[in-house]
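User: quick one, sequence for these tokens?
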């Protein structure tokens, strides 16, 4: 419980976080920009970070950049969690996050630069009366944004007027997710008493750290009350209401201002109920305020993730066998790969869910390599964060029982492990580590020992997803796990995209290690398309009992998808969003073929996004962002970096290459075909000509690439000259 703050000493409108850890003084860190980012001005500063407006020289765009002040392990952990929780969530009313960086001792991430006024400034300009014509659309957008956040299984925990900006176009953007948390945290984490948020906007239950989606809706209620009346709902009670919430009597907005519309008064009352069980939920709020039109892509069909799974029985048996062998004391590695969107992650998630039902003490440590991160040991970083969270919520005695002899080294290579008290106070057994290579070797050995001790006590599964975005340094740890006679009895899942395997040095090195170490328990599984029967089963789950589609139409969807789960889902979404019959004279209509559906989705993009996608698709190979932007005549006002992020998120394009050589390619050949074939011949020729002219300025471009584009452009002379130049260069070597 909270005993040490009162209404005299604490500003109710300032964010706070109180837990069992001591308060840390703010550390001043100066950020002067990097080779890529030029600082333009400071936008704001808080307890743990400063936000700057910077110019991104690579993306040719203005972005916001948040720099971490503190180097404390728990603060760094939350900083990374803020980025990783939001980077895959896209909604027009949530700020967009771009990339995470670690350079030297500085950590920072980039995000959308939003220029606007705070929510209250927008709805009550100059401190005057409430402008209802502004409040209603702004409130709808806040509700839509929070609904999207909750659907991603995330809680904001610090929603307030200052964290909702309104642009000059009327778009509301929710930001500042420094206190974000998953909806369903583990019981150990929930048991830790943490009071976090801004007191004036916190729900009563938040005092004990028992936050749910209802707690965020309470914050929306406070914002609405303040917008309608110009004051906080419990201003007179001060912080005493937190110590005794039942004693605080809520005044309704209409009691303060009789002109407040009844519907908004009622909504405010329902949002501000003391009991979260009685509080208005998302459905009720949306019904009261109405819903905005859907974003670019229709919302996913609402079937619980755990239920959307079919087939893969052969792979399931392989995974079962691998796990059984670890229970006999063997180390096992499973490399699972397949094309983008084929269902690799879904298979592992389903398998782990089944294991959890069989083994109540199963420990799963999951990490993921993020394509938009430039951090040390990026193949391990998220895994180490997960490990630190798990250890932090164990009793000290249990942590000490599994710590390796060199535990003190763990937090030197992986700072977030310093938030585990037993590791932070581990005795230093060798004060001097001679060099970075020796530090890495000994730390990896200590980490292997830690995993071994954990797996001695309970079944342990370690899963690294999207390993194609990993790095060689991280693969060196996997090599350490494979050392003969020292392998821990755990199951290691490594999943990655097939299309990256041949050219990715990290994956190549990993295969070499497994072959060289002669690891007896490693499996190489390829995930391919679904069978016709499996496609029909998956479609049935996606449609969730919809009966208006004829059997012929459903068969057409399955055939058009080619057994690819991603395309099957997109076709099902398209069908569910249409009220028209899918058949013409008893036969499924051509307009619902996959190519037609993909073209329809492309047509909903902005003109600039379509232009960039054109160049991605005609290229025939992944291109650097610089080449794409030059070919598409990108202007800063068109937000080229945001355009690439959108195309990747919407599964039109994919990232390829490495951190040092990022490239963008078409997500799938079906998308490339749909885009290229839909171009008028004269446009296609012009695109090839422009791309050839840009590529001709690149020092490493291959001659045959130029020749191909000149030929497609109909420029026979330029194609001949490019071929002749290449031949002369080859003969002179």
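Assistant:
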């Amino acid at each position: 419980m909270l005993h040490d703050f009162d209404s005299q000493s604490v500003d109710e409108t300032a964010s706070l976080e109180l837990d069992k850890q001591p308060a840390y003084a703010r550390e001043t860190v100066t950020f002067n920009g990097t080779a890529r980012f030029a600082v333009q001005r400071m936008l704001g500063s808080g307890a743990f970070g400063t936000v700057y407006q910077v110019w991104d020289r690579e993306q040719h765009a203005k972005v916001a950049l948040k720099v971490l002040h503190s180097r404390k392990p728990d603060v760094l952990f939350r900083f990374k969690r803020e980025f990783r929780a939001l980077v895959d969530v896209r909604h027009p009313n949530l700020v967009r996050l771009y990339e995470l960086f670690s350079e030297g001792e500085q950590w920072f991430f980039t995000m959308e630069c939003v220029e606007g006024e705070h929510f209250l400034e927008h709805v009550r300009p100059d401190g005057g009366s409430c402008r209802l014509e502004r409040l209603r659309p702004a409130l709808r957008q806040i509700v839509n944004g929070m609904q999207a956040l909750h659907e991603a299984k995330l809680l904001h925990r610090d929603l307030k007027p200052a964290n909702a900006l309104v642009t000059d176009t009327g778009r509301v953007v929710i930001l500042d997710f420094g206190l974000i948390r998953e909806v369903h945290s583990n019981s150990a984490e929930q048991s830790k008493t943490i009071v976090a948020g801004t007191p004036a906007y916190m729900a009563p239950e938040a005092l004990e750290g028992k936050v749910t989606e209802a707690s965020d809706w309470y914050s929306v209620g406070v914002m609405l009350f303040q917008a309608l009346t110009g004051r906080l709902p419990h201003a007179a009670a001060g912080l005493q209401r937190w110590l005794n919430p039942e004693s605080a009597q809520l005044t309704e907005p209409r009691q303060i201002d009789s002109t407040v519309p009844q519907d908004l008064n009622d909504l405010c009352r329902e949002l501000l109920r003391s009991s979260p069980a009685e509080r208005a939920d998302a459905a009720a709020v949306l019904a009261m305020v109405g819903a905005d039109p859907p974003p670019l892509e229709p919302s996913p069909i609402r079937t619980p993730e755990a239920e959307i799974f079919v087939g893969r029985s052969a792979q399931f048996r392989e995974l079962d066998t691998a796990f059984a062998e670890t229970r006999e004391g063997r180390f096992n590695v499973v490399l699972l790969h397949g094309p983008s969107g084929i269902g690799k992650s879904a298979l592992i998630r389903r398998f782990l869910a089944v294991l959890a039902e069989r083994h109540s003490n199963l420990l799963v440590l999951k990490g993921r390599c993020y394509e938009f991160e430039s951090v040390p040991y990026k193949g391990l970083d998220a895994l180490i964060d997960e490990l630190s969270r798990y250890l932090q919520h164990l009793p000290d005695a249990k942590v000490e029982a599994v710590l390796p002899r060199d535990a003190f080294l763990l937090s030197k290579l992986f700072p977030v492990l310093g938030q585990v008290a037993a590791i932070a106070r581990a005795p230093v057994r060798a004060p001097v580590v001679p060099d970075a290579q020796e530090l890495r070797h000994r730390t990896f050995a200590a980490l292997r020992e830690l995993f071994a001790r954990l797996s001695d006590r309970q079944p342990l599964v370690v899963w690294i997803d999207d390993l194609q975005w990993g790095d060689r340094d991280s693969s060196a740890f996997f090599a350490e796990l494979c050392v003969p006679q020292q392998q821990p009895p755990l199951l290691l899942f490594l999943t990655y995209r097939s299309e990256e395997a041949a050219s990715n040095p990290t994956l190549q090195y990993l295969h070499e290690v497994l072959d060289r170490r002669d690891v007896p328990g490693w499996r190489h599984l390829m995930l391919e398309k679904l069978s016709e029967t499996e496609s029909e089963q998956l479609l049935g789950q996606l449609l969730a009992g919809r009966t208006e589609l004829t059997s012929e139409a459903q068969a057409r969807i399955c055939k058009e998808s080619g057994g690819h789960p991603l395309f099957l889902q997109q076709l099902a979404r398209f069908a569910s969003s249409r009220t028209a019959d899918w058949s013409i004279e008893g036969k499924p209509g051509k307009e619902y073929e996959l190519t037609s559906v993909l073209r329809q989705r492309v047509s909903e993009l902005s003109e600039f996004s379509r232009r960039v996608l054109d160049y991605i698709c005609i290229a025939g190979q992944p291109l650097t962002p610089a080449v794409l932007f030059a070919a598409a005549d990108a202007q800063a006002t068109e937000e080229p970096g945001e355009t690439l992020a959108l195309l990747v998120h919407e599964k039109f394009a994919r990232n390829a290459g490495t951190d040092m050589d990022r490239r963008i390619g078409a997500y799938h050949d079906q998308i490339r075909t749909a885009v290229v074939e839909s171009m008028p011949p004269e446009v296609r020729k012009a695109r090839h000509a422009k791309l050839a002219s840009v590529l001709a300025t690149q020092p490493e471009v291959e001659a045959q690439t130029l020749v191909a584009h000149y030929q497609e452009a109909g420029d026979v002379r330029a194609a001949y000259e490019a071929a002749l130049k290449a031949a002369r260069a080859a003969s002179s070597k």
